[in-house]
Amino acid sequence: MSPPTSTGPAATPTGSKLTRVLGSLSLAFLAIFLLFGLMLSPPEVSQREAVRLFYIHVPSAVIALYLAFGLTAVGSVVYLRKRSTFWDLLAWSAAEIGVLFCAFTLVTGMLWGRPTWGVFWKWDPRLTSTAISFVLFIGYLAVRQLDLTPEARSSRAAVLGIIGFLNTIVVRFSVSWWQSLHQGTTLNPVDTQMDGLHLLSFFLGFATLALVFSWLLVHRFRVAWLAHQAGEAGLDRALAERRAEATGRTV
Amino acid sequence: MYWNYVLIGYVVVFGGLGLYAVSLLRRGRNLAEQVEPDRRRFLD
User: Fold this and answer.
1) A246 in a domain, yes or no?
2) Nearest partner of A75 among A96, A61, A102, judged by Cα
3) Within an 8 Å CB–CB cutoff, is residue A77 touching chain B?
């Protein structure tokens, strides 16, 4: 990321060569994934067509719980240690997109559960702990809107971001710690339960959603940076006005 | 069989991502107008 070279607001100010490459790759993978996921992949023996939900449900969960919330936790730890604006904004950006992917995990899980288990929702350990993660990070985003000083807001959010990520450990091991209706590890590198077109479609879904996540993260970070700069500029203007008022009074 | 659940799931995920992407680009455009060019670091 280099210093700015543009002189005015572009059509897409948060876009760049990087986002154009990521965006083009995302669209190309999306087209291939939809072809395989919805058309070429055959129905599974027991799940029938519902297996197609698997291709978006599992990647959404991995991206939300491990990638996005993990990035939020890392950014939060670095912020608390170094007070770095970059890491604070990166943590915030990852959390917002993580909440979106976590919502997709819950919705696609419910849609998969209805034909497979006969119910949309069950207070199963895996489902419940994932819902708790979702609520914790909704709380994180709410803390970001509190009427506090920027430092206090960022610090409180950082603590919540770390606690929120710790719950991912509970989500991960919930199926082995408690009796769960939810299946365990979907993809075991040694003994995978999927093969052929199912496995290919699954990986295409994963690649597509990971690319979209990356594209969104770069844009969201740049939006957060602009918001931060707009806030600083507003503060500078207010200080300049106060100084001008004070100078006017004393002259 | 179960196609309705599958289609709802795909529409929710990819429709949601599309809407969120559009809202992000709009937010960026509005904010860029409030920020001086020399403060737009990380945009290239």
Assistant:
1) no
2) A96
3) no
Q: Which residue of A has its CA nearest to B34?
A: A230
* Mutate which: B8, B14, B24, B25, vs A, most A CBs within 10 A: B24
In a domain, A89, yes or no: yes
* Total domains present in chain A: 1
The interface predicted TM-score (ipTM) is 0.91
Q: Which residues of A50-88 are buried (b: 16+ CB within 10 A; e: fewer)?
A: bbbbbbbbbbbbbbbbebbbbbbbbbbbbbbeeeebbbb
Residues of A in contact with B23 (CB under 8 A): none
**Per the domain annotation, does A143 fall within a domain?**
yes
- From first CA to last CA, the distance across chain B in angstroms is 48
- Tell me the C-alpha distance between A170 and A177, whole Å: 9
3-state SS, residue A182: coil
Find, in chain A, the residue whose alpha carbon is nearest to that of B37.
Answer: A7
Structural domain of residue A110, as residue ranges? 50-228
User: How far is residue A100's CA from residue A80's CA, in Å, rounded to a whole number?
Assistant: 25
The one-digit pLDDT tens for each residue of chain A (251 residues) are 343 444 444 556 777 888 899 999 999 999 999 999 999 988 877 778 888 999 999 999 999 999 999 999 999 999 999 999 999 999 999 999 999 999 999 999 999 999 888 899 989 889 999 999 999 999 999 999 998 888 999 999 999 999 999 999 999 888 887 877 777 665 554 455 667 888 899 999 999 999 999 999 999 999 999 998 888 766 677 777 888 887 776 55
Structure token pair of residue A62: 């991995």
Which of A14, A35, A62 best tests the B interface by mutation, with the highest count of B CBs <10 A? A14
- pTM of the predicted protein model: 0.87
Quick check: is A234 in a domain? no
Query: Which of A229, A23, A3, A220 lies closest to B43 in space, CA to CA?
Result: A3
